[in-house]
Design a protein that fits this description.
Elements: H1 13-16, H2 25-88, H3 92-122, H4 128-146
Length: 147
């Protein structure tokens, strides 16, 4: 900082003899600019972390949807095999294939519900906590300006 014996803003000798030096308007603007820059950078880092967290959750949900799709394809294959067995040999073998196909489709349904839940947790991909934090910061800045 500046010493009290060396005024930086052309203050009079009377003002420089004061034991407490008031910062100049330029220093205040510089300080506000530095603080605002730091605040914006911190909010950007927070937003980045929040979006990354939501993207990770969405990835898990999409993976569960993929698993549901694969299981549904296996279920369709088993049901087709059941239809073939039912038509070719009217025997209890087709009933067993039908039961297995229904069970696989039920598992696919559960996986689809889990996937939907995970995707809903990640939506919307907007950093809501960061937006709320920025709104709070803006309100505090406005309040301090009006004082």
């Amino acid at each position: 900082m500046t010493s009290t014996s060396e005024p930086t803003t052309g203050a009079t000798a009377l003002g420089s003899a004061n034991s407490t030096v008031q910062p100049s308007l330029g220093e205040l603007v510089g300080s506000i600019s530095t603080d605002l820059t730091r605040l914006v950078r911190d909010e950007m880092r927070l937003a980045q972390a929040e979006v990354a967290d939501k993207a990770k959750k969405a990835g898990v949900g999409v993976g569960a949807f993929g698993a549901a799709g694969v299981l549904a394809l296996y279920g369709i294959g088993v049901l087709l095999a059941a239809a073939v067995l039912a038509l070719a040999l009217v025997l209890p073998g087709w009933l067993a294939a039908l039961i297995v196909g229904v069970v696989v489709l039920l598992v696919a349904g559960v996986a689809a519900l889990v996937g939907k839940k995970k995707v809903n947790e990640a939506a919307p991909p907007v950093p809501t906590r960061t937006v709320a934090s920025v709104k709070t910061d803006v309100a505090e800045i406005k309040e301090s300006i009006h004082r």
